[in-house]
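Can't paste images in this forum, so I'm doing it all in text. The chain is below; anyone willing to post the predicted structure tokens underneath?
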Amino acid sequence: MSVIVGIETSCDETGIAVVQDGVRVLANVVSSQIDTHRVFGGVVPEIASRMHTEIISHLMEQALTEAGLYPLNGGAPVDAVAATFGPGLMGSLLVGLSFGRALACAWNIPFLPIHHIEGHLFSAFLGEKAPSFPYLALVVSGGHTQIIQCDAPHRYQILATTRDDAVGECFDKVARLLGLPYPGGPSIQKAAETGDDRAFDFPRGLAGKDTLDFSYSGLKTAVLYMLRDKPGASVPDVAASFQRAAVDALMQKTALAIKQSGVHRLVIAGGVAANKRLRESAAQLDAALFLPPFVYCLDNGAMIAAAAHSRLRHGCSLPPDAPAAASLPLVALSS
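Text version of the structure:
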């Protein structure tokens, strides 16, 4: 049995979790900064890192208390500490990375740096039904839109990525055009509930092209031009039509990836994986579908701990002194 503390501070959520054997979550606490950044319409990096610094020690105490490991009775309360070291906002990454390394040093236990996307891949193992290898993963968030083939633990092939905006970023920008609050994903989903998703025919980026890659800049621009030409357009109708086009583009490329790879197990992870239309559409694909519980779709420490447990188990831990990296290719860490 192993118990690992996972720390996630790559952007605007401070997440700390205690996970046993990579699957049983003993505690998972997350402090969101959404309300602070909402007035700016997006994340302000300097504010994000400062807020991580202010809350991280308190959250660690809270997570250990919920897991029944605090107050400390001498010695290390866990077997290892893991923290995200990239990609993400540099200042935010440094807060979690430095805090995690200090804890591991004080407790004289291993420290494991973990790739943020790898954490999302392992979020699927925190639910009731976990995938077996190989599987495909559609990773969709504010900063990432990728299809990854996971051949074995920590062996990855990037099959597709976005050529411009990530899908979550596109949701945020369109929400701003519609006067909806940040973050855009939940706002657009709520507005779309009463809208006609066929009121406007927005483009699906790279549809019909011989590529698995995504493109969302054209969809965002199409909404901008439509609102310019029809300023009185119904917000629910625009939101519903946009959401349909955004999800359709994801499903078209994912269906093609399933066909080309011959892999019929699919994980969907990342913040956009919480989108109801995406989940319903993915259920129609020719693949066994594995979705993390909603609480593990957003950034959290449990997914970092789960990935760390697997790296320890398979003997492929990364150097504990690996530096924080704002840009960090996942394939560079493939074993």
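The beta strands are 3-8, 13-20, 24-32, 80-86, 111-115, 135-140, 145-152, 155-161, 265-269, 288-290. The chain has ten helices and ten strands.
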